[in-house]
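Recall the central idea of this unit: under ordinary conditions, the amino acid sequence of a chain determines the structure it adopts. In this exercise we apply that idea directly, starting from the sequence alone.
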Amino acid sequence: MKAFLLGCVAALVIAIAGMEILNRVQEPVAQAFATSAVRL
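Accordingly, the structure predicted from this sequence is:
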């Protein structure tokens, strides 16, 4: 039971860390698709 709970906590920590990293790395859609042919 202890290993299962530790695995759940580890998965939660990894998911939260991944979310934070992606929020900082990704650029807004207005910047990503900013070309002369695209109107947002």
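Residues 2-25 form the longest helix (24 residues).
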